[in-house]
Amino acid sequence: MSTNSDPEQALTMRDVAKRLGVSPMTVSRALRGQRGIGEDTRKRVLAEVAAIGYRPNKRARNLRSGGPNELIGLVVTNLANPFYSQLAVGVEQVCVGYGARVMLGSTGEDPQAEREVVADMVERGVDGLVVVPAGHDHSHLGGDLLNGTPVVLAASPPMGIEVDCVLVDDFGGTRQACRELIARGHRRIGFLGLPPSLWTGSERFRGYALALEEAGIAMDERYVSRHRGDSALAEKAARGMLALDEPPTALLTANNRNTVGALRALRDRPDGSKAITVAGFDDIELADMLDLPLTVVSYDPVEVGRVAASLLFERQTSTVSPQPRRVTISTTLVDHPTPR
Amino acid sequence: MSTNSDPEQALTMRDVAKRLGVSPMTVSRALRGQRGIGEDTRKRVLAEVAAIGYRPNKRARNLRSGGPNELIGLVVTNLANPFYSQLAVGVEQVCVGYGARVMLGSTGEDPQAEREVVADMVERGVDGLVVVPAGHDHSHLGGDLLNGTPVVLAASPPMGIEVDCVLVDDFGGTRQACRELIARGHRRIGFLGLPPSLWTGSERFRGYALALEEAGIAMDERYVSRHRGDSALAEKAARGMLALDEPPTALLTANNRNTVGALRALRDRPDGSKAITVAGFDDIELADMLDLPLTVVSYDPVEVGRVAASLLFERQTSTVSPQPRRVTISTTLVDHPTPR
DNA sequence: CTGTTAGCGCATTCAC
DNA sequence: GTGAATGCGCTAACAG
Fold first, then answer.
1. The pTM is what?
2. What does the alpha-carbon distance between residue A157 and residue A165 come to, in Å, rounded to a whole number?
3. Which of A32, A33, A123, B132 has the fewest C-beta atoms under 10 angstroms from its C-beta?
4. Does the C-beta of A320 come within 7 A of strand D?
5. Closest by alpha carbon to B126, among B88, B163, B71, B164?
6. Do B123 and A56 touch (CB under 8 A)?
């Protein structure tokens, strides 16, 4: 199969050309299916290429041609969160359709790390970036750092820069969930939220607040916790609320991590606590198999990724209006009763 | 902040050099912190670089220097599976320690797609590949396709090639889980397995088979299903077994997808079915919150990724013995009782 | 149809 | 300490 006599040194187009007694240009043209080359010549070249196992060097090609690198950078906080891994799936789906690959970068919610990851990716020549921002200010994504590389933000609208973004209906979804709890008769609804500095944190809190207001329920600070999305923190906060003299009869959680925390807080409570209803943002696998009923604000994270990548490629191929675009993914309220 | 007068055209080292009245080499040296350059000159250069927002082109740098690209390819079947996304986290953790980035590729369990992804990544100049193989034969990863790029397989030992690999103790873990079921008095244990063609499928089945044999229990084909890892298929198979005259009293599942299927099959059954015990390979988030008790073969997928990437970098930096290495990640049996 | 020249952005190698 | 020449692998732009 292989006739590669020097396995250590990668073959170049010149090696192929020399063996065939043609110029490198002929090899180049044959390889790219460019027209203006004899049919027999092309076949000879391709045969030789296959025979010796030559592989073109795409970086060199791109350096010279100046064309797109067919590479998209995806910057997230933590790929272990199902939301981000599904988002990555969506981004990749669209990318392969354009012959592009995805380069990964995790920031661990550290804006400084985000800066560095973005800078590195730009230096590596990504054609565009999909960023789930770590902080609330994004002006660091607007200067020379990007060198003109287009950016799409996911899950947060741009602040301090003007770029496209894909959002989830954080406000509407949370409001709907809260309304549902109210419709079921709950008046003391605990909120396990995210930091106000985060867009999602602020929007989801706004949905909670408005639903309460619309129902004429005064917000009680004892029932509100706004912390980093972390199941341990959420669990602690939930335990605190449940220990109050008048504990909430329902808990509304602002993301999947907080939902997990809330469920854990209810885990070991006496049987009566089953009466406490939990509703949360983000769907959770096996939610229908839990010991407690759970209502979730559901949406498709894969779709978020698909839209983000699409916005990026549209800017590259067609001439879209320079106005920043904003797409919002809608949510659905889904009920997960307990089995039986 | 920015003095970039031509935002469309990326700046080059020559632009910086020209503005300073020095040669590009001086800029190059200053940028790489190379010694043999005046301290004041370096400062002037770095100041100018910062002022006009010049960013080096890493592809061009690498093309000329011939050094490593600091880029690792990660090829998985489906990033939406928590196992693979956690593996990706581990790979990336190690990569950043070496200043490298991760390039992503999904195969959808299609060996042909795997070939193409790998070829593409090699052409893009990855320094190494971590592959979770889609098929059972890996000889396509051994020829000219790779151009000498080192590969580490994850979750499957190499077949038809000689490369390093990281495995999970599929056999031992499954055997231990099955033994536990037997110790709890079960004799009719259903097995929801993976295709025998997959390494994990075959090894986990072997663990099941040996545990039965050791206990003097004859294997009953009616209690064995070996299908693609897919929760819907697993659910169907489980329903079939539970409808038998003598249904199994316990189910052993070969991966997280099958566990989900098994749980779903038990979801709507009359109360008596709670007596059916489920044990499965792979831990599951919220397993402790389920309506049914669950015992899992647990291990750290992040660690699998970390080890895989480490094996790759060790081959690059130090001169490791050319013998293919094999690392096995051990498993632990973890009990998840139902709440309360 | 094919080959030659030049150069993408940068770094090696050698001068000075 | 700094600069000039040369080339990484490949392809535009122009020959012929």
1. 0.93
2. 6
3. A33
4. no
5. B71
6. yes
Three-class SS state of B302: helix
Tell me if chain A has a CB within 8 Å of the CB of B264.
yes
What architecture does CATH give domain B170-298?
3-Layer(aba) Sandwich (3.40)
Superfamily of chain region A7-61: lambda repressor-like DNA-binding domains (1.10.260.40)
Side chain identity at residue B61, one-letter code: R
pLDDT digits (tens, 9 = 90+) for A122-168: 999 999 999 999 988 999 898 888 888 999 999 999 999 999 999 99
Tokens 């012959």 locate to: A99
User: Which nucleotide is closest, CA of B29 to its C1'?
Assistant: C11
CA–centroid distance for A231 within its chain = 20
Contacts of B73 (CB under 8 A, 6+ apart): B102, B103, B105, B117, B118, B121, B122, B124, B126, B128, B129, B130
Tens of pLDDT, residue by residue over A176-213, are 999 999 999 999 999 999 999 999 999 999 999 999 99
Residues B256, B259, B261, B264: is their CA dihedral positive or negative? negative
| Chain centroid offset of residue A308 CA | 8
User: In the numeric block, which tokens belong to residue A233?
Assistant: 């923190």
Tell which CATH architecture fits domain B69-167+301-316: 3-Layer(aba) Sandwich (3.40)
Grouping H, G, I as helix, E, B as strand and the rest as coil, residue A189 is strand
Domain ranges for chain B, please list them. Answer: 7-61, 69-167+301-316, 170-298
The strands making up A326-329's β-sheet, listed across from edge to edge, are A326-329, A164-168, A151-154, A128-131, A71-76, A101-106, B101-106, B71-76, B128-131, B151-154, B164-168, B326-329
Q: Do domains B7-61 and B170-298 have the same CATH topology?
A: no
